[in-house]
Amino acid sequence: MSVVIERRDAVSGMGWTVLRGARADVMRALGAEHAALIEAQRADSDGGWSANVRRSRGVAAERFAAVADSTRAALPVESQELDWIAEGADIAPDELWAQNLRGDLGRDGTGCSDLSLLHGASVVLGHNEDGDAGLRGLLRLVTLDIEGDPSITVVWYPGMLPSNSFVTTSAGLSFGMDHVPVRVADLRGCGRHLVARHAQRQHSGAQARDALTRFGCAGGFAFDVADAEAGRVDLIENAAGVRAMQEGGVIRHTNHLRVVDGARGDLAVAADDEWLAESRARLAVLSDVSRNAADADAVWGALRADGVRNLRDDLFTLATAMVDTGADLVTVQAEGEPWRGSLGAFARGERVDA
């Protein structure tokens, strides 16, 4: 196996692993290096992991097989990457697929907020990564420097394809992903995490935007995409095969559809859904605290504000990340104090403090 593994000093409490080499070697090493963390997640996820696996092998077996098959056909590289992670971690591949398709087969909880804007020649994108409070301390940073791809640095959940939270790349792209629930999945669609990974491997913003509108997700994701070279920010919603895009302005997003018509029958969740109400309430607070937002400081302040930043046991802001492309600046905060560093270096897997 030809892979270089480097370890950086922790960033705001998150360990940081950098892996460089050929695709198969890097992905196997990602699983092997973090096998204990993946196993801990498998054992300590309050039954969630085992429930997802049981569902994929039982009541949802037909749906699981359909989405997995359509994903493998449309996105073979990303599908193979997930298999290699499983191989490295010595986990049955279908177990990792069950985790990574959980939001394509049903609800995966809620959480995550994004705020993006243009500030002069700079693109600013901020993302709150929310989840169960029991996941505190599990998140880490991973850089993948794979031959032929732009390098990427991602806020990573062990066991997931490195793609479903906050990602920035050496191609000058940054992504924030928000779960959006749909009532009925599109079984002809692809797994959301793999669509995200495919877009993040692209060498230009145009290619990434094309990927996010060409490959339909079986479930639902909202993608906030910052493109430094083009000086633009976009919101792309991709839900149960339906795609729509909003370009420019101040973009705010939580966990319900805003550009795609979320009231249509195959997408609409129940009107009295508690998580829909929570997402709308969080968006209202985000809109209020960012109504005059015009720069990176305002974006950071809005995402860390009470009512946007979550501190509940069932909905906790595990990390906040923000890029300011014009200033070549990335800011990250998890369990520790905020860390600020060079964005370009960060995407390449180099720690350069600001």
Automatic annotation (TrEMBL):
Residues 123-257 form the Peptidase C45 hydrolase domain. Coiled coil: none annotated. Signal peptide: none annotated. InterPro entries: C45_proenzyme-like (IPR047794), Peptidase_C45 (IPR047801), Peptidase_C45_hydrolase (IPR005079). This is Peptidase C45 hydrolase domain-containing protein. It comes from Microbacterium dextranolyticum.
